[in-house]
Write a structure and sequence with these properties.
Blueprint (H helix, E strand, L loop, with lengths): L9 H9 L15 H28 L5 H28 L11 H4 L10 H26 L4 H28 L3
Helix pairs in contact: 2-3, 2-5, 3-6, 5-6
This protein binds fe (ii) ion (2 copies).
Amino acid sequence: MPDKPFLTDIKTLRERARQHMEQGAVTPAYKADRETVCKLLNEALATEIVCILRYKRHYFMAEGIHAKSVAAEFLEHANEEQVHADRIAQRIVQLGGAPDLAPDTLTTRSHAEYKEGEDLLDMIKENLIAERIAIDSYADMIRYIGEKDPTTRRLLEEVLGQEEEHADDMKTLLEVMSPK
Ligand SMILES: [Fe+2]
Ligand SMILES: [Fe+2]
């Protein structure tokens, strides 16, 4: 027997769209557990904010012969983490949740740590570690969401791609700074 060309008939789709209009973009067809997704996104948001703060600190504190180019890289990453944070916060709101930006609990909710680093080399290492943590936790979230929320999944995949670039950038800097 051939597959049905469309999964839900038009009448049902239209009726469902009229129900629970206050839920905005979240329709009854939403397959994921909204609360859990918002909780995970809030952890990601805390992680991004801590990463912004760490990169900003490193940007202002970078010293030494390689400082200028390395600091420029730190600033670029800080700005990209800010874009990630904003996109994640926006998605939380879209899902009917609220972004948690409470500063008091930020470091306990974040997956990555705020490490100041002793010197330029140390800062690069700390950033590489934080990026590797972010990569692992985004990969976990993507696996959890699976096919249940394609929009959140796409967002997380895009962010993950950039975290991988960040990790790669830090690895390159590490090689430049400590030649064999
Ligand atoms: Fe990020
Ligand atoms: Fe990053």
